[in-house]
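Sequence and structure are no longer studied apart. To make this concrete, we show below a single chain and its fold as tokens.
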Amino acid sequence: MKKSLFTILILFVITVANAQTQRWAVGFKLGEPTGVNLRKYGNSNALDLTVGTYGALLGMDRLYRNGTYRNVGIMLNATYLWYTPLLSERMIAYAGAGAQLNTRRYYPDQFSRVGAYTNNISIGPSATAGLEYFSRRTSSSYFLEGGSYVELLPAFLFVSPQVSAGIRHNF
């Protein structure tokens, strides 16, 4: 009886361990957007979260609605990715879709003389594609990615390009 119970327990632990493989990465992106990045890898997919700045590289002093953006905003981006090995097991190509939430100061033209602004919150879908290289010697990975963010609210179909590079620590 003890051997049967022990065998069942071992099989259960092995099954649970295989079903819940924990592969995480935390890192930093530099570009558009710039921020802290967290990624949870699955078998051929990943969930990618970034918290950081929006508009610092490609969007400063940009025409927007009936006015301009003149500052850097804060953003939250969540993207579901699919990936596949490319050329070797240490390099992957990935692409995915997600959503982005931003907050930024908006300067309408009618207030441009007095410097008045409103705080603008925007939301819309994002798309990302990139390459990631996993170091052989360390638990680091290096990536380069690009894509776009398409604002739906409040400026319908306002497109913002996104390009960034960074490093992640994988654990």
Helices lie at 2-19. Confidence is low (pLDDT under 50) at residues 5-21. The first strand starts at residue 24 and ends at 32. The two ends are 39 Å apart (CA to CA).
